[in-house]
Write a structure and sequence with these properties.
About 35% of the residues lie in helices and about 25% in strands. It is an alpha+beta fold.
Length: about 250
């Protein structure tokens, strides 16, 4: 009896092996196609976004790009302390004089230079205090700020100016009854007394913040106490302290 040969084994994969192979190949092909689509889409978005880029508007980012040197910044702002105090809402102040621009000069009184600049100004008007008074108080304000000095001795020059002003205040035209230190800005002094007219009371405060000095005069025709005068003047303290501290170059 002749042995029958077994039929040849079929080549390839069958059953679960075939299923796994088909599934694996299909997954890899799908991932390849998906990656190709993502790459093409990303390239398209990049090209699209670059086409819509615009330049920043003039002046954009001015705060971040502000120069560290204070000189140009100061001259652009060109501050006027009369305008600053006139904008303080907590005090009922009405300026009737002093609308002219501040005066710029050198320390010696001539034309200012790039490293020699003093700014000064003055204004006047009336104050309506919170306390009940028939007649508003007369108000006068004067300031002088040493912005630049050739010897870089601005604070020392301002201190000399303050002492000169104090000497003038002690010999003022009103009879001083009380005087002393005043709790305002870096350094301040007050004078209280009777004006030359003999009616009411007068009150003066001389102060210094860094290399800027100022003088405030109040006159109450129907009289006022030191506490009442001080209450109104202190409404100017935080603004003068902040602005003189930030606007005068360090």
């Amino acid at each position: 009896m002749v042995d029958e040969k077994a039929p040849p084994r079929k080549q390839g994969l069958h059953g679960w092996r075939a299923a796994v192979a088909v599934f694996g190949c299909g997954s890899l092909a799908g991932l390849a196609v998906f990656g190709l689509v993502v790459a093409i889409f990303g390239t398209f978005l990049s090209a699209l976004s670059s086409g819509f880029e615009t330049e920043a508007p003039p002046g954009g980012g001015a705060v971040a790009a502000r120069p560290s040197a204070p000189r140009d910044e100061f001259r652009e702002e060109d501050f006027d302390l009369c305008e600053i105090i006139d904008s303080i809402s907590s005090i009922q102040l009405s300026l009737t004089s002093g609308s002219e621009s501040p005066r710029d000069e050198s320390i010696g009184g001539g034309p200012p230079g790039s490293d020699d600049l003093v700014r000064s100004g003055s204004c006047g008007g009336i104050v309506r205090p919170e306390a009940t008074y028939v007649v508003p108080w007369e108000f006068d304000f004067t300031y002088r700020a040493v912005i630049y000095s050739p010897e870089d001795d601005r604070d020392e020059l301002a201190e000399v100016d303050l002492q000169d002003w104090l000497a003038d205040a002690e010999g003022a035209e009103f009879a001083v009854e009380e005087s002393g230190r005043f709790d305002m800005v870096d350094e301040a002094y007050y004078f209280y007394g009777v004006p030359e007219s003999g009616m009411g009371n007068a009150f003066s405060v001389l102060g210094r913040k860094r290399s800027g000095i100022f003088m405030i005069n109040l006159t109450a025709e129907d009289g006022a106490s030191v506490a009442e005068f001080s209450y109104e003047i202190m409404k100017l303290d935080s603004r003068l302290d902040n602005d003189l501290g930030s606007m005068i170059p360090g």
